[in-house]
Design brief:
Layout: E1 3-9, E2 21-26, E3 32-35, H1 40-48, H2 54-59, E4 61-69, E5 75-78, E6 95-97, H3 98-101, E7 114-122
Antiparallel strand pairs: 1-7, 2-3, 2-4, 4-5, 4-6
């Protein structure tokens, strides 16, 4: 069972929403359905069918990474393998996943460092 960690700046009050991301499956209408952990496979089977081929599963599943816009600090989710890295709020391309910010300068204060902190919670 993976741990749930928190992400925040060690200097200011900036806290990242989420713990990294969530899996999703695309339904027949093209909508992305979040797959709650730890039942991701159950949700995929409900959406694609019990006998879905591995090829179909690979084509219609993905991962929404928790992201932050370094320009306006808007936080949102996107699939960095499928979606354009563009802020949904200000249209900036200066986007990072939460995990990409760890050990780097805080996007808000620019003085602190983003840290990944163990919460002690397991999924």
């Amino acid at each position: 069972m993976p741990p749930i960690n928190a992400f925040w700046c060690n200097r200011c009050d900036f806290v990242f929403h989420g713990w990294g991301g969530t899996s999703y499956v695309i339904d027949d209408a093209g909508e992305r359905i979040i797959c709650p952990h730890p039942g991701e496979r159950v949700t995929v089977a409900l959406v694609l069918g019990e006998n879905a081929s591995q090829e179909l599963i690979e084509a219609r599943t993905g991962f929404h990474s928790h992201c932050v816009c370094a320009d306006c600090l808007h936080q949102f989710q996107l699939d960095v393998k499928r979606d354009e890295r563009r802020c949904q709020h200000c249209n900036s391309r200066n986007i990072q996943t939460v995990r990409e910010t760890v050990g780097k300068a805080c996007p808000k204060c620019k003085e602190g460092t983003v840290e990944e902190i163990e919460t002690g919670i397991m999924t």
